[in-house]
Design a protein that fits this description.
- With 264 residues, the chain is mainly α.
- It folds into 2 domains: 149 residues, Hypothetical protein af1432 (Orthogonal Bundle); 93 residues, no CATH class.
- Helix content is 63%, strand content 0%.
- Helix 2 packs antiparallel against helix 3.
- The chain starts with a helix and ends in a 10-residue tail after the last helix.
- The relative contact order is 0.11.
Length: 264
């Protein structure tokens, strides 16, 4: 049985870990702060998704722990490599599990629960989940993937972040949606790659095809992230088509969990 006191203890250790890696480099600290803020919003997201999905209290409590530590590898990754790009540095999920083991941050959890948390973290940033994974691993991996993506959308409504915070790029006033991006939406697939910032916005919006819980879709509708992100993309017929595809898909998947009915 996982409870709020378990979360409180692990959260205390998490904060102690953050204090131990403090830096005087403003550039690095800004990115650490970005991920700390992200972490706590993901905790809120995962709790809302769990509660609105009717999950048991102990599953909701364990989900909060998964969210708390899911990105713990990001901090050392940025300190060492100055990027959040796993392909140019390290797999931050693997690094995070190594850090959790070295620090003993999860040692109060029973070993089977600890291994479940590790598995959920290991799968939270995979391009695709292996359907052959144990059902409990899939369950918590899907929860953290949804909660994580929802907050990345939130960040995207506020500022431009790819693998680090962008401050010096020019706005794309003459943007044309690439054919391959439109094709992915028509086929209901996530966009695999991007070149420009507007490409990245559409790539991230295509994550809608990889979200799992009806409550997640309801949360997206309630917070109006789709419209806020699309508002940053220059108008075109292709953009309008993509917008229609997204909203039809989200409303279908939300079912009875429409934004207005969520318990938030």
């Amino acid at each position: 049985m996982i409870s709020d006191p378990d979360f409180d203890l692990i959260n205390k250790r998490f904060r102690e870990y953050l204090n131990s890696i403090g830096t005087h480099d403003q550039f690095i600290q800004e990115h650490i702060d970005l991920k700390v803020e992200h972490t706590y919003r993901v905790i809120g997201n995962i709790f809302l998704i769990a509660r609105n999905s009717g999950l048991p209290d102990d599953d909701a409590a364990l989900a909060r722990i998964v969210a708390l530590v899911h990105d713990i590898g990001r901090f050392q990754q940025f300190i060492t490599y100055h990027t959040f790009d796993d392909s140019q540095s390290v797999n931050h999920a693997e690094l995070g599990i190594t850090i959790l083991k070295e620090t003993g941050l999860l040692n109060e959890l029973d070993e089977p629960v600890r291994l479940l948390v590790y598995s959920a973290i290991m799968n939270h940033n995979m391009a695709n989940l292996d359907p052959g994974l144990p059902e409990r691993v899939l369950h918590f991996a899907r929860l953290i993937r949804d909660a994580d993506k929802v907050d990345i959308w939130y960040i995207l409504t506020l500022r431009d972040v790819v693998n680090k915070i962008l401050t010096d790029h020019l706005p794309e006033t003459s943007y044309r949606v690439p054919d391959q991006i439109v094709d992915c939406y028509r086929k209901g697939r996530t966009v695999p790659s991007a070149v420009s910032m507007n490409d990245y916005r559409l790539l991230r919006l295509s994550w809608i095809f990889d979200m799992n819980f009806p409550a997640t879709f309801g949360l997206v509708l309630k917070r109006d992230y789709i419209a806020k992100i699309l508002a940053k993309v220059p108008s075109s017929a292709e953009k309008n088509e993509i917008e229609g595809i997204i909203y039809r898909f989200v409303h279908e998947k939300a079912g009875t969990h429409l934004g207005a009915s969520l318990k938030i």
